[in-house]
Design a protein that fits this description.
Helix 3 links the parallel strand 3 (77-83) and strand 4. The protein has a five-stranded mixed sheet. The chain has five helices and five strands. The longest helix is centred in the N-terminal third of the chain and has 15 residues, at 7-21. By secondary structure, the protein is of the alpha+beta class. The structure holds tetrahydrodeoxyuridine. The site of tetrahydrodeoxyuridine has 13 residues, from helix 2.
Amino acid sequence: MTNEVTEEVWQVLHETAVDAMKRAYAPYSKYPVGAAALVDDGRILSGCNVENAALGVTLCAECGVISDLINGGGGRLVAFTCVNEDGAKIVPCGRCRQILFEHSGKELLLYMPDGIQTMDQVLPGAFGPADLHQITERADG
Ligand code: THU
């Protein structure tokens, strides 16, 4: 499974995330984050966190990645990484795991601080589009 994404591609993702982190707007937490993802068509996307004086409406770096994905025509995420100011790998927050799951599914590879894990490992039993589909089917039946 982890063979599908080469070391070279992980390196490009890491560098892209570090680059995005440098553009973060994080005056309140002073914790800039950069994220990058590989799409199934080969595109590489990135995002940075964008904070707000109304702290609760802060956009995580992952939101930028997903905005980039949809605005660029959509697709499925294959690999993902995010970094802090030191360029160290960090874990995506719970909300962002859910946001990423919508556009990847269980197989997404995430470069966590301890190594590569799948979405299924970091968000087991996730609620997703298929669950809504079941409700629609029940309503129709
Ligand atoms: N942050 C992200 O951008 N992504 C995450 O997955 C974790 C947290 C940002 C939000 C906030 O601007 C800062 O990190 C501190 O929480």
